[in-house]
Amino acid sequence: MSQALDNDAIGPIVLINLFTVKPGRMDEFIELQKRNLDRSPGNVPGWRGSRLHRSTDGRTAVMMSMFDTIADHKRLHESSRIAEHVQKIKPLIESAEPTYYEVVHEVSGP
Question: What are phi and psi of 2, to 5 degrees?
């Protein structure tokens, strides 16, 4: 598959979003993200799950979300629910850097 993935790329497709969080706002950011994620199971077509990570230095967070297709993510991102959520987290972050990835290899421990 080429480096540029199209909307119909069959997944799993992983969206990795690197957030730079404003100083002193990490706990609030994490709580808002957790609340939003906890409402997602069964309510987001094409969504397979997400993992939220906080850096040990407390400056950044990474969200890795898996979707069936890029189009599934884009449909979610255009929803009013996400628009409302983005407005809540915007004051807490300096930047967000989302990038799509395709899974090319996976290994699990025993």
Answer: -70, 165
Going from N- to C-terminal start, the domains of the chain cover 10-102
Strands 93-102, 47-54: pairing is unpaired
| pTM of the predicted model as reported, rounded to 2 decimal places | 0.84
For residue 55, the SS3 value is: coil
Please compute Rg for the chain using Cα positions: 14
pLDDT, tens digit, 9 for 90 and up, residues 36-59:
888 777 677 888 899 999 999 999
The domain 10-102 having CATH identifier 1.25.40.10: the answer here is no
